[in-house]
Design brief:
This protein is α/β, with parallel strands linked by helices and 347 residues long. It has one domain: Rossmann fold. Helices cover 36% and strands 24% of the residues. Strands 4-3-2-5-9-16-15 form a seven-stranded mixed beta sheet, sandwiched between helices. Strands 1, 6, 7 and 8 form a four-stranded antiparallel beta sheet that branches. Strands 12-11-13 form a three-stranded antiparallel beta sheet.
Length: 347
């Protein structure tokens, strides 16, 4: 079925010729009126299109809250410590974090401010409803502001637009009649496929005065990066990004090596890299005594939640965590989430 978004994309191709896949993904996901995310059509969880660690339950947010508390401590327990979240979706993870910090670390809760970077009004409204109990603590911005504290994202980079470049050839989106097809063109070997993610690193590094950046996502770190586009709708993998345009999620695994290299170019230091299993186990091992025991192992539901987050065949190995730091004393202790991490493959 044709939609206004499909016709908009067709008109651009007819007027200007084949378009990069990055431009196509930007329209499919982020077009202000018709995009999958920006329109509010994206639903996460059992009744939605896919699961995330947030869908599992509040434990993920509780453990992140403990890690942020350690970061606050390492910065000298400053006033107006800022937690910045990008890709907050409906605000559930923010609520889980603030709930747990208020309960487990009241001094930290008193010092923190929570900023959500959200350019889309429909999502801001959802987040505001979810976070109504914390309205004094939370503020919204259309773009990143200078901050001291921690910036974090969960499954943000994998949804950033990418170009499909391999061995000096790039796939562009063209039309065959009304049907979307790929064509290939020769491009320079120095072209970056993930400009959006690299530019994002530039921006966050420029806005961070002192503190950490935590990126949680799924990806690879091989020297020669090859990755496939993933298209998901109602927990099914679709065969093509040209199916259900504007109604399906389109992602690509993160190329951690290029992200780490760009971070270094911006004066950031790698503070740790590991999979989600080791990251969360490190936090639990250090802060279990100060966390709500009912969330860790109390009920059968809590045990299933923990297993889903940690098990290598579930979310434990599928997702990785990269920590970057700026203005941190080199003698500062390693963050708890990386105490069981091996040496990063791109160190």
């Amino acid at each position: 079925m044709d939609t206004p978004l499909l016709e908009l994309i067709r008109q651009r191709i007819r007027a200007q010729g084949p378009q990069s896949f990055a431009w196509f993904v930007k329209q499919a996901l982020y077009h202000r009126e018709h995009g999958y995310y920006s329109s509010g059509r994206c639903i996460i969880g059992r009744k939605g299109d896919y699961f995330t660690s947030v869908s599992v339950g509040p434990l993920f947010g509780q453990l992140l809250g403990a890690q942020f508390g350690e970061i606050w401590d390492s910065l000298g327990k400053i006033d107006r410590f800022t937690i910045v979240e990008q890709g907050a979706h409906d605000g559930q993870l923010a609520r889980d974090i603030l709930d747990s910090v208020q309960k487990d670390a009241p001094d930290f809760f008193a010092a923190l401010r929570y900023q959500i970077v959200e350019p889309f009004a429909v999502l801001q409204e959802r987040q505001a409803r979810t976070l109504e109990a914390f309205q004094i603590k939370v503020e919204w911005h259309d773009a990143l502001q200078p901050f001291t504290g921690v910036h974090f994202s969960n499954e943000l980079l994998d949804a950033m637009p990418v170009r499909l470049i391999n061995n000096g050839r790039e796939k562009f989106v063209d039309l065959d009649g009304d049907k979307f097809v790929f064509i290939e063109r020769q491009v320079g070997h120095q072209e970056e496929f993930n400009d959006a993610a690299l530019n994002w690193i530039d921006e966050v590094a420029a806005k961070l005065r002192r503190g950490y950046i935590l990126i949680i996502d799924y990806g690879h770190w091989e020297q020669e990066f090859h990755a496939n586009v993933h298209v998901r709708m109602k927990h099914r993998h679709l065969d093509s990004p040209f199916e259900q345009i504007g109604h399906a999620d389109i992602t690509m695994p993160v190329d951690w090596r290029s992200i780490a290299e760009r971070a270094r170019q911006n004066g950031l230091r790698i503070a740790g890299f590991t999979d989600q299993n080791h990251f969360l186990v490190g936090i639990i091992s250090q802060f279990a005594s100060g966390l709500d025991k009912s969330s860790l192992a109390g009920s059968p539901k809590a045990k299933r939640e923990l297993q889903t987050l940690l098990h290598p065949e579930m979310l434990g190995r599928a997702f990785q965590v990269l920590a970057l730091e700026k203005g941190i004393d080199l003698r500062a202790p390693q963050l708890a989430g990386f105490k069981f991490a091996s040496e990063p493959p791109f160190a």
